[in-house]
């Protein structure tokens, strides 16, 4: 939960930028991270060298930084873990507001990037040559970092969703892998009836999980055009999600266990939590945190809201952005490009990251890699197919960080009381509309 001070800071930045926002971008024919000359001469910056400070919590960047320094001996990369997610965003916003202490490169999750972009606190990278990467990345991540011709970050990884299920539990209770969400509800009923200790999944209210499933269902509650914002949780896709999930809540078919808690890991290990619908970055967490269940789990495509569809969505994933306050923007961009494309991206995949690059997703080595944890299954084939089926017309609010921070105060009540998800989403909508207007946006007008 964000503090009141942080909310005021985000609001001040948003309103200052909202009143003067433009969506224009410079051309994308400038020099790139491999050298060249143009408005942004990256090659000269690499030859001159210097220090690049990178704020990130992603562990695979350590090897990338070492490789970058080896390739460019005049450059020193300092990796700093300033906290994960919201903790880092708070520190970054504070540094920007103070006018000093900001890094040269920052890891920013896709849902949070819009808040930094609209505040004009991150560079448009198209003048550095970033526009040429439109076909390098898969559609979901690329859509998340671009607006018109502007490129506000380069995708570092992605989280196309998949259905993780405990095959041992399913086989014991003769459950077929659900291909639709209606079948999923039936599977939940069958499992819980056979053994009241078993739940199809857990859920205590999670903004990211909720919006991802609404995304997959075809809901598009958020629309942003400059400073004009629409928030509407009354569309058909959202209604599909709420109708299904309300059944699970009403019938007490989801465990009241919070994700990433000790109880959650225990449930995944002992089979009392039988499935997860989550991003493709999950395998590493299962391998390290649920080692006792190795061999029990498998991966399948997400159940569909309409039988026969192949719709997917993103859940998680992050980018590398260059703050406006960076001291050496050309050098910062060079590292950003190196870490997210070509050999740098491949290195990160080999270190355990899930790729946002088409080449890595489509490589035979990647696709044919067996996962011992999943009984030798070539799970990347499922993840890659999911990435291809992500709809690209989703957008977040330009103040999504704030909106997510009040999710449990609004929608979360449906998990601990008799109130309904539809009521909670309406309250969340109202809170998001009010906050946006307070920051100077035109919301639902």
TrEMBL record:
List the InterPro entries. Bact_solute-bd_prot1 (IPR050490), SBP (IPR006059), SBP_1_CS (IPR006061)
Q: Report keywords, A-Z.
A: Signal, Transport
Q: Where is the signal peptide?
A: 1-25
Q: Which domain of life is it from?
A: Bacteria
Family from the record: Belongs to the bacterial solute-binding protein 1 family.
Q: What is this protein called?
A: Sugar ABC transporter substrate-binding protein
